[in-house]
Automatic annotation (TrEMBL):
Residues 340-368 are annotated as: Disordered. InterPro entries: ARM-like (IPR011989), ARM-type_fold (IPR016024), Vac14 (IPR026825), VAC14_Fig4p-bd (IPR021841). GO terms for biological process: phosphatidylinositol biosynthetic process. GO terms for cellular component: endosome membrane; PAS complex. Residues 495-673 form the Vacuolar protein 14 C-terminal Fig4-binding domain. Scaffold protein component of the PI(3,5)P2 regulatory complex which regulates both the synthesis and turnover of phosphatidylinositol 3,5-bisphosphate (PtdIns(3,5)P2). Pentamerizes into a star-shaped structure and nucleates the assembly of the complex. The pentamer binds a single copy each of PIKFYVE and FIG4 and coordinates both PIKfyve kinase activity and FIG4 phosphatase activity, being required to maintain normal levels of phosphatidylinositol 3-phosphate (PtdIns(3)P) and phosphatidylinositol 5-phosphate (PtdIns(5)P). It is found in: Endosome membrane; Microsome membrane. SUPFAM superfamilies: ARM repeat. This is Protein VAC14 homolog. The keyword Membrane applies. Keywords: Endoplasmic reticulum, Endosome, Membrane, Microsome, Repeat. The gene is VAC14. Forms pentamers. Component of the PI(3,5)P2 regulatory complex/PAS complex, at least composed of PIKFYVE, FIG4 and VAC14. VAC14 nucleates the assembly of the complex and serves as a scaffold by pentamerizing into a star-shaped structure, which can bind a single copy each of PIKFYVE and FIG4 and coordinates their activities. Interacts with NOS1.
Amino acid sequence: MNPEKDFSPLTPSIVRALNDKLYEKRKVAALEIEKLVREFVAQNSTAQIKHVILILSQEFALSQHPHSRKGGLIGLAACSIALGKDSGLYLKELIEPVLTCFNDADSRLRYYACEALYNIVKVARGSVLPHFNVLFDGLSKLAADPDPNVKSGSELLDRLLKDIVTESNKFDLISFIPLLRERIYSNNQYARQFIISWILVLESVPDINLLDYLPEILDGLFQILGDNSKEIRKMCEVALGEFLKEIKKNPSSVKFAEMANILVIHCQASDDLIQLTAMCWMREFIQLAGRVMLPYSSGILTAVLPCLSYDDRKKRILAVANVCNQSLMKLVIPEDDEVADEGKPGLASLPTDTDQEESLSKQEGVSGGCLDTSGDSNFSSTSVFMPASAERLQVTLNLDGIVQVLDCHLHDAGAGMMTRIAVLKWLYHLYIKTPRKMFRHTDSLFPILLKTLSDESDEVSADAGSMECSPTTPTMNSYFYKFMINLLKRFSSERKLLETRGAFIIRQLCLLLNAENIFHSMADILLREEDLKFASTMVHTLNTILLTSSELFQLRNQLKDLKTPESRNLFCCLYRSWCHNPVTTVSLCFLTQNYKHAYDLIQKFGDLEVTVDFLIEVDKLVQLIECPIFTYLRLQLLDVKSNPFLIRALYGLLMLLPQSSAFQLLSHRLQCVPNPELMQAAAAA
């Protein structure tokens, strides 16, 4: 510093003391400056005050010499004390050089800068709020300072600034949000702690509505939630919890749509706490916002579906994901089936408090990423200043996106069983609620649904079967026959599937759909089957199901009596295909009480090649005759006179059998047939 330079109105002794390396001498100089500035204030000499501040800034605080910088800092603080309430007129000039020293390499100097700014802010109080952003920016850097003394000093200044913001009603939140959004992505733990502490303070101030700007900082908050520090994670949990409470209190003012994709992203986080918290938020959003969330359904499903297969280690996430899935499914309604060009998309509006209570009470009883979720909405492009009322918009179900996600999960070999079941339930729900729109997806979904029939899970394959041939509309009925053809082709090419799961699949289809249609269509298709061995095996399987499954009780009764044209037509159709297997044809005749024809068929068995497989089938038929299904047949043996061909047919089967357990069983049964002469005598008596 040039000793000959004129620093007036600062005296040479003040200048020397400010440049001294001893703190005590610099403090004496500061007291002299304070006295001098007070005189200028009394004289209303604004020019002199500005000149003093300028000298202290340019010649001292921004000097190349460290001791001069320290002198400049204490001098600026002294000016502020002397100015008192008038310091607000000079805050820009007082604050800027001090903040520059926050970046100094010397930790002691950074500490003095912090001390000086504390004194300036303490005097100015609410007048510093127009300069809040630069103060916050400087403090956010000091929060991560490696020197403990500097950090301690910054914490004192931070608390003072928080007190000022809390007691003031002039805080400019709009201009602060961009800075907060930028700083919230810091990876430094201390900086993150600093950010969260400020968010908690701003949340607690009644006059500051931080909820309006939550879309700007929500993503950053979820990132901080994954911090390694337990203390920071806890602070962030508290902050998010407070926001969620506020959202529940005032759903009508919440910008749900702007935050939907942020939640979708974090619902897929690898960190359990982030995923659970995001999923809980998603649950509340779906229940509070209702159909406003529909445009984001594909993204939500991308995040939620994999969670449905979580085990007990993540049971909390699983439970919340289940609620999300079921609540979202309820949002799809028949009105969504209106075609797009009709121009009738549904109107989504946020519910009133009364509506919300009713909605929540109704919804309480509801029981890997495949898609670029940004395709639904780009939250980064929305304005932070957009009023919440803008969410009263028309909502159209993005069915193509939803089906794409569901199809992707069906193709994913690694998808868990419960995920696959949920996908199938979604497809079934969409076919029920929006059959016209779903029709155009049937061709693309058909192959994978057919493949899903061979799933190891009974529930998955059963749901797939009901999806494949559910005739929800007249147009969809054309797929029923096509499905039966493809199902039989699959059984033909995958014999193990037929052996292990064939009966189960067919029984489930009969349970869910019309059993008569299923048997009629299969019999008709098998009539033209070129692979005779497969046709015989398939007919045997169908016959066993027909005779033994409780699901086909009504169909058996219909065939037993043959009283209607429909039942007789069904018998004729079955009979033609059942002829692929001689023994099953006889059993069908027994079921329909065509005993004479059964006897005639058995008479012709002598012309066939009697193989081991043939005898095994006869053995199984004998076992079936002893089952409850054929109780009526066994009782008819009492009326020998009226049922001679039944007895002859049974004796015919007996003659076909070798001396086996089945032979003994049928022989004992026939021995119980009463003597017709005795029966006549008893009747006469």
